[in-house]
Amino acid sequence: MPTEPHQDGEGEALRPEYPIGVPSKFDPDGNVQRFPGNTIVAHLPLSSPIYASLLKLYERLSTCHLSGLLAMLPPSSWHVTLFEGVCDQVRAQEGFWPCDPGLPVDAPLDDCTSSFAGKLREFDLRCDPPYRFVIVGFSPLDVGIGIHVELQTPPEESRLRGLRDRLAETLKIRHPQHDVYEFHLSMAYLLRHLSDSQKSELTALLLGHLQDMPKVFELGAPEFCTFDNMLQFDHLFYLGDQEK
């Protein structure tokens, strides 16, 4: 749940005490919190040159003097979300829960996951992997450390956006940012708002690493996953897998 915003002496609302993700996904000390849901992702292959490069960045972030401000996500969890599912604790706002008479907003999460699984097992992928991405930079240092990625070519962009549209129609859920969703790979959550000097220092570290790292990479078939928290995304099956 969101934190209460601070107020100044005249009662004007300012930014929340903590960045988004605290205390819902991590507490202020960096301890992971239960935040269950389901999603469709593609995990970063261990054989990818990007993975090897990000491991070096992970070590630098974990040992730098600003590491106490970060909740690092384990390399085994690294993925690009291809289509947002649901989070058990985020239901009320329109677009965050399926518009399905069989799944009222107070339905158990397991019912939603079972419903999605039944539909996805029959889903015609029509968008075969690999999906070719390119790293274009880092997301703003407001919520965490995320690598901003885009599809490598306009045809790649078109076919993956088309896949997202068909998934939204099949699952009867369309998030508010569906049409402008920015693909990314998350490495850490911020536990505190950064000062200007901290943001400058962390930005320099990230951009220094970006300069020499490989930029183009491929992802495999979409995976329907469940999660209990932000540290692990449990594979249920691949979309389009006839053996599932």
From TrEMBL:
The keyword Manganese does not apply. GO terms for molecular function: ligase activity. It comes from the Eukaryota. Keywords: Ligase. The keyword Ligase applies. Coiled coil: none annotated. Residues 25-140 form the DUF1868 domain. Residues 1-20 are annotated as: Disordered. Residues 1-15 have a biased composition (Basic and acidic residues). This is RNA ligase/cyclic nucleotide phosphodiesterase. It comes from Podospora appendiculata.
